[in-house]
Amino acid sequence: MDSENLSVGPEIYGEILQGCVYERDLLTCQQIHAQVLKYGAFFARNEYIETKLVIFYAKCGAFDVANNLFSRLRVKNVFSWAAIIGLKCRIGLNEEALKGFSEMQENGFLPDNFVVPNALKACGALQWLGYGKGIHGYVVKVGFDGCVYVASSLIDMYGKCGVLEYARKAFDGMFERNVIAWNSMIVGYMQNGMNEQAIGVFYDMRVEGVVPTQVSISSFLSASANLGAIDEGKQGHAIAALGGLELDNILGSSVINFYSKVGLIEDAQLVFDRMREKDVVTWNLIISSYVQCGLIEKALNTCHLMRLENLRFDCVTLSSILTAAANSSNIKLGKEGHCYCIRNSLQSDVVVASSIVDMYAKCGRIGCARQVFSSTTDKDVILWNTLLAAYADVGHSGVALKLFYQMQLESVPPNVTSWNLVIFGFIRNHQLNEAKDFFSQMQSLGAHPNLITWTTLITGLAHNGFHDEAVQIFQKMQESGIKPNTISISSALSACTNVTSLWHGRAIHGYAIRHDLGSQISVSTALVDMYAKCGYLSQAKRVFDNNLSKELPVYNAMISAYALHGQAGEALAVYKHLEEAGVEPDGITFTSVLSACSHTGRVNEGLEIFVDMVSKHHFWPSMEHYGCVVSLLSRSGHLDEAFRLILTMPYEPDARIIGSLLSTCREHNERELGEHLSKYLLELEPDNSGNYVAISNAYAAAGRWDEVSEIRDLMKEKGFEKSPGCSWIQIGKKLHSFIAGDGSHPNTEEIQATLALLGIDMNFSA
User: Quick one: pLDDT at residue 87?
Assistant: First the structure.
């Protein structure tokens, strides 16, 4: 037009610029912009052209140019405000976007249904619920709530702010819902852990005839993966395939993530192989999936294939490689990964640095871990926690506590994970009082314990013999509003180990049933164990029978329960059922079965299982298994065979095996062997009071009272005391306890008289 000397007005330039907006043609637009400037202020200062230029540069993401032009606008209108607010939202300047939203109104311009969604998006990103509610009020006031795009943005904002009841109310109030609205609702539920509701909305969407998009399927797959819902996830994959949705990087990664999370790694690999185009994110996902499934070689081979595709490792790739090295304690691989990070200047990345620290710690090189930590300039709370975890895991509670205070001196406030790790460090070092004190300090300083905090403390107390306190902490956790999970329930049940705690165990069982956790394997196993140890074998069997999908831990618990109660026949029957069900036994299974045979003198069955253990199941016996067989042989009078087994087994006998054989020597009057074993036992464990009691009992049975007196005097010199025996009986709701040598029970005289009468009656019957 210039060559023909045709007159071109501002409107023509505006239309051409609009075409550039549609095509995102930056070069042509810049040429037109230059032409406009060339023609002087008449064009350059034209409101229409100025607005079009701002809109164009904003759409192309050229923030500096767009922002500069916008700031120099003589006349700002709704379109220019919408363009600059939208641009700021897209590049993450959300506070600036909301500031512009307010300034726009202060300058007399009412935001339209294009501006409002961007403002709501900024509120969601910042989680500014109050501001978002204010915009919602504006939406209702001006009547935009009928606009499907605005309503969808409201759902998305409330979802990102975690207020799903408001999101659902906005969703239900829509007269017309497009796929974006449905997606916003599904994503909102999924991102807030409400996975069942997300799946429900997806199914409602299908019923309404709305065709799902890649976003719908991806969110549905994530929700299915989080729930371990294999059938639902497979349906989602099928819907995507039947709907002709291409397995691009986004959808393909979602499908791979689903299959890997539910343990179907081979299916994940098939999907990965069928994807035509794979970016670094997709490669990282499959590598990470292999690492999480323990397939280290496959992960490393995939890394090699990734390099053959001319793709460079990034921080995520290196984190997966370092995690593989940590999980397999492969220090050589870990060092190679560390060297790669140094060569490619990745070691300064905090995520990579945390992975390197974790790798060295898990490979037993905590000094190297500390060195990497110290050389990292910008330390965030994750890196501090990684080093805290390293020291806590090996029980170096003092160093962990020092780090906890040091991070605060360096202006890094600890989070709940930091507190949890220090508590864990104390527990690993068996400092239970310190762990409880630190937990109390945590609460007093306003740091709110989470589920992991409570569970760590409950588990630590239960495993270290503080059973009553473990149950009390479990009750306090519920009072605080934290819902127990399967781990905390199982740990609390493990603290209920005798008749005195049966009531608590039954209460925990009731909680598990009410919250649909009773059928979980870990809970079922703990329930069987708890009822057996509390003397309620029939209830243990009922729990076992009611568990429809029995796995090895439940079988082990039931076999152990029968062994504890001396019912070897029933224990062997469960073992046989386990084999028939195709469940492969482990070391715990064999220990329990052999123990059951030992307590009831079933020598042939026990020896047969011991042989099958190696020949049929290819399981190499441990010291504990040999100990069970020694006990089995010695209790049935085969002392020579038992002693011969001790001499030929591939382990040095421990005090437990020697003590077992010594007790049977007393019963079978084998003085010479008993004398030899007594000396050996004291050499093995000179500070174990139980050994002195066992030897004293052996001498007493042989009538060697001078030796008994010597052993008792030796115990007094060493400061040893024999723990008195204790037993309980529950009558109605009252529990009665009896301690050896204690006559403080109010009915002692009556009990003794009854026992005397029973003794006379038994002697008379004999």
Answer: 85
